[in-house]
Specification:
Radius of gyration: 32 Å
Strand order of the largest sheet: 1-2
Order of helices and strands: HHHHEEHHHHHHHHHHHHHHHHHHH
GO molecular function: DNA-binding transcription factor activity, RNA polymerase II-specific; sequence-specific DNA binding; zinc ion binding
Number of strands: 2
Distance between the termini: 72 Å
Organism: Aspergillus flavus
Subcellular location: Nucleus
Structural class: mainly alpha
Pfam families: Fungal_trans, Zn_clus
Largest sheet: 2 strands, antiparallel
Protein name: Fungal-specific transcription factor domain-containing protein
Shape: elongated
Number of helices: 23
Helix content: 40-55%
């Protein structure tokens, strides 16, 4: 027995040494004669041609037979070669099965039907490459990171796809946002407190605009405390000045109906400049007013198109909240006031929502893990003054759950982490989460088809559609480029899984534009708001793709023109974000008319493009604005031209957001076994695109 074990050990050692040590070279092969010299049985000088063939003028007949010597090799060496070959073939299958997004066409996937090996435990994200995308603005500034989830980056990819892979896209690197130099000039000026009556109006407007999904501060307490400030002339407390000036800024930007203020600045900019100048004195022991001020300023930053500032401010608020233990429940014995405890809880969850939603928009990671949060959800207290301070908690709870889904979209679709699941499996998991969210929403938060829906309810469902679109739209771009490069006839059908995803994405885009157009005609959209402009732009990009698909709906052209008109009106009234997005939709429409899909468009395609004034290069205290008259919202007949098919606003299937998840094909996809969901079909998705997308010029770099 001992002798047998010794022999086995020697064999294992021999196998390992043979597998890991290079073999000795076999030496130089002996020269052989060419076929002509060999047949004549004469000595060959070698070379090609040899001297005898050269003299005879038979250079072309001078050929040599390839000979392979028989050599002795160890069996362990052959076994190692077989094992290495099998591993190489397995890696090649996994590499081919990954969906790879190219560059110049806008990142279109390649795939195969081969299932993932059972031994594969770490499939890399098929949507991303090995390097990130950076855009150089100028030599003096840091390169700007551009995430694949950004809507303007997706617009760039779409234009590359419409223009064909070889077309170049002009750089539109100028951005509209309030610069630091302008804020600096305003902050050093004399900024007086408004009258008490106006201060109350502005605070009520700010808190009313944010509630119920976002809780920024106690409503009644914040308004009532103004009386104390004005009576005692407490205008020098930096924390109070910061909080209330932030509220004044938010209230002013939400209350101005249109146009600019008398000094030609964006509404709320003066108050914002004063507040932002005070916030960077970070306290070692923060109080609630300081964290609330950070939260309000973060929200104000978005109205000024300062998204990076908003992300940084909410990050500071989150860190201060963590240092104060906001992510834990505080004992009632240490914090006996139930109103104060509920305020603490709701402020924390508002920070959480901003972190998740804005991280998804910018393509940036979440700043706190869900496993580290141990605080209760917002609740409705049985306290007499509860309704004076808080809104119904069910709205914020619904938004919190949707914010968690946003994190899953970022992690599963746009993250560089490796996953053991295929892309379609991750899509199924996400859509099932969204369906569960829709089923758990209370009835008063659901959209009612035949009655008026509150603005906050509409916004929640618009965010739901936005998340669904971001989760699916890369697949639509892949299908579009595949149609352009292959013979894809209208009779060609997609696989059930891909058809279900495509249908859900297009449905959500159509539903989004219907909701936005309805809110716009009712005048319930803030002129300087950021949310509606984002939703309009995101859905219009999907409908551009939908219109070009063989089974697309030509009525989507009307929706695209409607979206462009709404963005144009917002931009003309001074909405900075809408001005950027309108230029993008102009560029997309231009590529749509002049690119490789132009022959598929009707000759009567609308042209709603107008020029929106570019922001000035020099740093001035005022924000440039086009010299245009106030835009009057048109009637329904003007939004939906009678000469073209109208938006399907009366179609029952577009009345609610959840209908996209209850179509028969989607039901089959969501209930399909995980093991039955394979990979994308190369006959449906393009497979031959170059990998140079990160080098594409990005027009505006901040989204």
């Amino acid at each position: 027995m001992i002798r047998q074990m010794s022999q086995e050990n020697r064999l294992i050692t021999h196998v390992r040494s043979s597998a890991h040590h290079p073999r000795k070279p076999l030496g130089i092969k002996r020269s052989v004669a060419c076929q002509r010299c060999h047949s004549q049985k004469v000595k060959c000088t070698g070379g090609k041609p040899c001297s005898r063939c050269l003299v005879a003028g038979c250079e072309k007949e001078c050929r040599y037979i390839k000979r392979d010597r028989k050599v002795r090799v160890d069996e362990s060496y052959l076994e190692q070669l077989i094992q290495d070959s099998q591993e190489l073939h397995r890696n090649q299958r996994e590499s081919v099965s990954n969906i790879t997004f190219g560059a110049e066409s806008g990142g279109v996937p390649t795939s195969t039907r081969n299932p993932i090996s059972e031994n594969d435990s770490s499939t890399r994200n098929p949507l991303l490459k090995d390097w990130a995308w950076f855009q150089t603005q100028n030599k003096s500034a840091l390169p700007i990171y551009v995430s694949e989830v950004a809507c303007t980056a997706f617009a760039t990819r779409l234009c590359q796809c419409l223009n064909s892979k070889d077309a170049s896209t002009s750089d539109m690197s100028r951005m509209r946002y309030v610069k630091e130099s302008a804020l600096g000039v305003l902050s050093y000026g004399e900024i007086e407190w408004p009258s008490l009556a106006r201060a109350r109006l502005l605070v009520n407007t700010a808190l009313g605009h944010a509630n119920p999904p976002f809780h920024l501060a106690l409503r009644k307490t914040s308004v009532d405390y103004l009386q104390t400030i004005y009576q005692n002339a407490s205008f020098d407390d930096p924390v109070l000045v910061c909080k209330y000036f932030a509220l004044f800024a938010l209230g002013e930007v939400c209350s101005v109906p249109s146009g600019r203020l008398n000094n030609d600045t964006s509404p709320g900019t003066t108050y914002y400049a004063r507040a932002i100048n005070l916030i960077f004195v970070l306290p070692e022991r923060p109080n609630m007013a300081h964290i609330e001020a950070l939260l309000i300023l973060a929200l104000c930053s978005q109205f000024l198109n300062r998204w990076h500032s908003a992300y940084v401010l909410v990050g500071i608020a989150l860190r201060l909240g963590l240092s104060a233990g906001f992510h834990h429940n505080i004992p009632e014995t240490q914090y006996p006031d139930p109103i104060a405890r509920e305020n603490r809880i709701r402020v924390w969850w508002t920070i959480y929502i901003f972190d998740r939603f804005w991280g998804l928009k910018l393509g940036l990671p979440m700043q706190v893990n869900d496993d580290d949060i141990h605080v209760d959800f917002p609740s409705n207290l049985a306290v007499e003054t509860f309704h004076d301070e808080f809104a119904d908690s069910s709205y914020q709870v619904a938004v919190i759950e949707l914010a968690r889904i946003s994190t899953h979209i970022m992690r599963n679709i746009y993250s560089r982490q490796k996953s053991a699941e295929t892309l379609l499996q991750r899509e199924q998991k996400l859509l099932n989460e969204m369906k569960q969210w829709m089923q758990s929403v209370p009835d008063h938060i659901r959209l009612q088809p035949d009655t008026h829906n509150p603005r906050c309810t509409v916004l929640i469902h618009l965010q739901f559609n936005y998340c669904l679109i971001l989760a699916i739209r890369p697949l639509l771009l892949g299908i579009l480029d595949h149609i352009a490069t292959t013979d894809f006839s209208p009779e060609t059908t997609l696989s059930p899984a891909l058809a279900a995803l495509t249908e859900a994405c297009i449905h959500s885009a159509r539903h989004t534009l219907i909701l936005c157009a309805d809110e716009w005609t009712k005048g319930s959209i803030s002129v300087f708001g950021y949310a509606f402009a984002q939703y309009i732009f995101t859905s219009s990009l999907v409908l551009v793709i939908s219109n070009l698909l063989p089974y697309g709906n030509a009525d989507d052209l009307v929706s695209i023109d409607t979206a462009a008109e709404m963005l144009r009106s917002f931009a003309a009234d001074g909405n900075l974000m809408a001005g950027d997005l309108y230029e993008h939709i102009q560029k997309v429409q231009k590529c749509q008319r002049s690119g490789r899909f132009s022959s598929r468009l009707p000759s009567t395609l609308g042209n709603t493009m107008i020029q929106v004034q570019e922001p000035c290069e020099d740093d001035a205290p005022s924000v440039p604005h086009p010299t245009a008259t106030t835009y009057v919202p048109p009637t329904n007949s003007q939004i939906y031209p009678t000469s073209v098919a109208q938006l399907p606003i009366s179609d029952p299937q577009y009345k609610t957001a959840e209908m996209s998840l209850y179509q028969p094909t989607m039901e089959d996809f969501l209930t399909q076994s995980v093991t039955d969901i394979g990979l994308l079909d190369p006959e449906e998705i393009s497979t031959n695109l170059p990998d140079s997308w990160p080098s594409i010029p990005l027009w505006t770099n901040d989204f």
